[in-house]
Amino acid sequence: MKKPLLEFTDKGIYCAAAKVYLDPWKPVDKAIISHGHADHSRWGHKQYITHHRNVPIISHRLGAIQVTGKEWGETFSINNVKFSLHPAGHIIGSSQIRVEHMGEIWVFTGDYKTENDGISTPYESVSCHTFITECTFGLPAFSWTPQKEILNNINQWWAQNRDEKSTSVLFAYSLGKAQRLLKYLDTDIGKIYTHGAIEKMTAVLRPLVDFPETTLITRDTKKSELLGNIVLAPPNAHGSPWIKKMVPYVTASASGWMAFRGARRRRAIDKGFVLSDHCDWDGLLSSIEATGAEKIICTHGYTDIFSRYLREQGYDARTEQTQYGEEENEVAAEKAAESLS
Amino acid sequence: MKDFAELIKTLDSTNKTTLKVAALTDYFNKANAKDKVWTIAILSHRRPPRPVNTTLLREWASELANIPLWLFEESYHIVGDLAETIALVVATTASTTEKTLTAYLEEMIALKKKSDEDKKNYLLSNWKVLDYYERFVFTKLITGGFRIGVSQKLMTRALSKATEIDEDILAYKLMGNWDPNTITFQELILEENESDYLSKPYPFYLAYAMAGNVSELGNINNWSAEHKWDGIRSQVILRNDDIFVWSRGEELVTDKYPEFESFVGAIPNGTVLDGEILPFPKGEIGTFNDLQTRIGRKTVSKALLAKVPVILKAYDLLEWQGTDIRQLPFMERRKLLKKLYEKSVVSATLNHQQKKGSETERSQSTLPFHLSETMHFDSWIDVAQERARSREMRSEGLMLKRKDSPYLVGRKKGDWWKWKVDPLTIDAVLTYAMRGHGRRSNLFTDYTFALWTENEAGEKELVTFAKAYSGLTDAEFKKVDAWIKKNTLERFGPVRSVTPHHVFEIAFEGIAFSKRHKSGVATRFPRILRWRQDKTIHEANSLEDLKALIPE
């Protein structure tokens, strides 16, 4: 039997014909990277290839690495295998990786979402034979409300807290979600303060996107000046001594998981906003259909359930074990980036 | 319905008690009288009977959502709540409903008698016109079990703020058997109405667990001790030649325990007893496991009645000769209780002998009425020694009650303390894991534990003995969860078997032989005491070690 174009090895997704890995989780010689989240762009590869908008992100997080930036749709060949990057809409600089060899086309999504968030280059469907997809929210229970409505609710929540003389603390991942929220926070309501991890990551991205002004919380920041304003913080700041400065405060989290009533309670957060950088159920199904692919490989999320459903719909679908989709890695990445800078 | 859904949404989106009380008070000030009665009923778990069984609900919801039933079931398992799952999978529309909460509930009551076809039409048409939260609340009303972090106490507090009626009086008014479909807000809450009070129990007085050193309670002479019995806390009410048995969950359980019918006539009207229903097979106190066989049954067979009869172990007297005596000092109430006990048991025995005149049913000739003996000690050391005898006495530990204490309402500190024996513990191996429900739906937090045993071939193997899902910190659960995801051996639907590797110390309150369990042993309230990362699986205990803990 012919070797598949992409294989799942213990180091990552491997293209043997080009001797290249896609988003490997162990150190390799040559890695093509879909996006800057820590579970996809790990430390220790000899050579990184990624979209040029992701270059500042991974350079910030991983320090001095050898990295090449590519344009959307720019084809580059390695050992006669053609590669190109296409927008995934997940976060700034996030790509799907298209691999073509001897007439066969595979696409690896990394993480993606179909809604245009206004800061990431919007998702574009790429035709292929085999589609390697995430399915973080691959259950029919997930159905997103358009971001405009959610962002309005967030601003209303902030305004209400300000009227009640509380500080609003909004938890979001320091790369991606924090900037998506920041872009749309209404500065007529008050000032936007940030946790160090978010401030630094945002500073890296300011040359690419026009963001409102932010103020870093430092040792000298006074309690009284925070009152009524909003603080953007990474989720791991919840329950830390750092947050005591914000008293009296109200907490909220913006995440797809907030669709579950239990998720908000488990995290002991006052308010949950359902806002995700991944596809919802319909988003996954429509994207898969649009690629025209017959073979579908599910990498992370509710993989078993989702691939079983796809098989019932007539796809040749299966699950592969990867090490993507672990939230803990994001926290580790923030710490690593802090130690680097 | 809009207001009620909004209320539930507000209650659901905060963890702060003050905000919850404020939202409820606001609702009670604004809502119409009929909706208020229904809201009180729902929040005190008096929902109307379920009009549609959940199998049909699942089928119809998956049909409306256009997904296969198995996918609905998988989603339900992950979400952890049926109404929430239905609300999530059905496509959301803008709400168009103007119906009141009462109107919905009246429709649901009427629905019970309708055909499946009508039921289906009713559900589908409503699911389509409600927004996400209304759909959740609507479905929750049908499935029941409205657990949204609002205790009856919290609701009573809000109601008290809105009506300016004392909280304790409201707690009393809300107890017992009232029908939200027929009672008005005026009758239930506002009116003083003596005649309805026939079946009404008093709010239970609950004790806190001893936390500090017992000698901090001061002079031993001010305290009375008794064993803490492990049964069903109950109030037995005799009024107007009728008997009412209430469990602590405010459930009327009279029909489940027909042996207490013999109290009528033997114990005078106008008597309310507080005590513990205990299993009493073979003339001695049984295990909680014995009682389990009675708890779930609505009708009890003669065979079961003979096999596991129950008794009331009485420890307090709340009403005597038709008068509420809860304000009398504890020792005064106990004196009256003792007199009552002696008189009724003697007269019942005489009565029985006159009627039967034979020896055949001698064992059943006395009332199933026992006293929980009070004990008085000279030193706290003696109390501690008595506590150490608890397992032998078939009790869970001691109750310490101040001799002059009145019978208070709810859980109050100061006068009554429970001083349980330390739990039994054993080191066991984690073998299976399941996703948690509700707030833990993304984590594997429900664990099965096993102990070593020898099979017929003389080889060591692990045998399952208990399930536990509490006792670790959130951080520990997260760690174990991550480990489970990487060390799964096999998947059986929602359950995963994992490589035997981790040892946990499991604590439990009681232990008994059991035919229903594979291990042959049933443990009571098993929970994780700690994660023994210092132990390998070969250092875990054996089933023999566990069996050695079973009292003679």
Distance between the termini of chain A: 49 Å
Order of helices and strands of chain A: EEEEEHEEEEEEHEHEHEHEEHEHEHEH
Strand tally of chain B: 21
Please state the second-level CATH architecture of the largest domain in chain A.
Answer: 4-Layer Sandwich
- Computed CA radius of gyration of chain B, to the nearest angstrom: 26 Å
The poorly predicted ranges of chain B are 358-365
User: In DSSP terms, counting alpha (H) and pi (I) runs of 4 or more, how many helices of chain B?
Assistant: 18
State the major sheet of chain B.
Answer: 7 strands, antiparallel
CATH superfamily of the largest domain in chain B: DNA ligase/mRNA capping enzyme
The percent of residues in helical segments of chain B reads 25-40%
> CATH homologous superfamily name of the largest domain in chain A?
Ribonuclease Z/Hydroxyacylglutathione hydrolase-like
Topology record:
The complex is a heterodimer of chains A (341) and B (552).
Chain A (H helix, E strand, L loop, with lengths): L6 E2 L4 E3 L4 E3 L7 E3 L14 E5 L3 H8 L4 E4 L5 E3 L2 E7 L7 E7 L2 E5 L21 E6 L11 H17 L3 E5 L5 H8 L7 E3 L1 H10 L9 E2 L6 H4 L3 E4 L15 E6 L6 H6 L4 E3 L7 H11 L3 E7 L1 H10 L3 E4 L7 H14 L1
Chain B lengths: L1 H11 L4 H14 L2 H11 L10 H12 L3 H11 L2 H8 L11 H11 L4 H14 L2 H12 L8 H12 L3 H8 L10 H6 L14 E2 L1 E2 L13 E7 L2 E8 L2 E6 L23 E9 L8 H8 L6 H6 L2 E11 L2 E2 L5 H27 L12 E3 L8 H9 L6 E8 L7 E2 L4 E5 L3 E12 L8 E11 L5 E9 L5 H13 L1 E5 L2 E4 L4 E6 L1 E4 L7 E4 L2 E5 L11 H5 L5
Parallel strand pairs in B: 1-11, 2-12, 7-9
Antiparallel strand pairs in B: 3-10, 4-5, 4-6, 6-7, 7-8, 10-12, 13-14, 13-17, 13-18, 14-15, 16-17, 18-21, 19-20
